[in-house]
Write a structure and sequence with these properties.
Elements (H helix, E strand, L loop, with lengths): L2 H15 L3 E6 H5 L3 H9 L5 E8 L13 H27 L4 E4 L20 H7 L4 E2 L5 E2 L7 E8 L19 H5 L13 H8 L8
Antiparallel strand pairs: 1-2, 2-6, 3-6, 4-5
Helix pairs in contact: 1-4
């Protein structure tokens, strides 16, 4: 089967499972991002492709966060459970076709070393989504998509299936826009695209480890 035909089948299955955005990037492309991806190669030496999909956040559940943070937290929990279901579904699909596949969790790890402080995942899903052409990296360092803006979460699955890759978008959604800088209540974002992740984490996860 041709790379494009197989990629089309995989993407169609992901949309059937409930993904809102779907893309593919070659594993070789992601190796250029350094050590994190070298460790992935140790786990799946014959990896060829990275399948990445996104599930959107529900806009109306974000606004109540100032008055009752449990409401957006519950919605986020539901979102991650939906991503888990989709990830397992596409893993079964590729496994049935005879390919190896390993989905990587988008959750924050609990490991609290001096370097990561529990804020660095095994791989960067926003960068796989960027390389697959699903959006661009904004001043906030979040991935901005044309349809959902930054209100979407991503999950990546590594596979030895030979899939046709997408290409990064040649767009700038941040042109002449400083909305994220102005809106940040703790001034965690500066004009040069630097983000103080600890400032952000303490504000957004007051009831989690960063808040503690």
């Amino acid at each position: 089967m041709k790379k494009k035909d197989l990629a089309d089948q995989v993407q169609k299955e992901l949309y059937r499972l409930g993904a809102d955005l779907v893309g593919v990037v070659s594993f070789e492309t992601m190796l250029s991002y350094g050590e994190q991806w070298e460790s992935v190669k140790e786990i799946l030496p014959h990896a060829k492709s990275v399948v990445v999909f996104g599930v959107r956040m529900i806009d109306s559940t974000i606004a109540p966060s100032k008055k009752n943070i449990r409401l957006p937290q519950f919605s986020t929990k539901c979102l991650y459970e939906e991503m888990d279901r989709i990830a397992f579904g596409i893993s079964r699909y590729l496994d049935d076709l005879g390919y190896q596949v390993i989905p990587y969790s988008p959750y924050l790890p609990v490991e609290m070393g001096k370097e990561s402080k529990g804020l660095v995942g095994d791989i960067s899903h926003r960068h796989t989504a960027y390389e697959a052409g699903l959006g661009t990296i904004g001043k906030s360092r979040l991935l901005l998509t044309e349809r959902f803006g930054p209100r979407i979460r991503f999950l990546s699955a590594i596979t030895d299936a030979p899939l046709k890759s997408g290409k990064p978008l040649k767009k700038d959604f941040c042109k002449n826009c400083d909305l994220c800088i102005k809106a940040c209540s703790v001034s965690a974002i500066d004009q040069d695209g630097n983000v103080d992740v600890m400032k952000c984490a303490r504000e957004n996860m007051k009831l989690g480890l960063p808040g503690v």
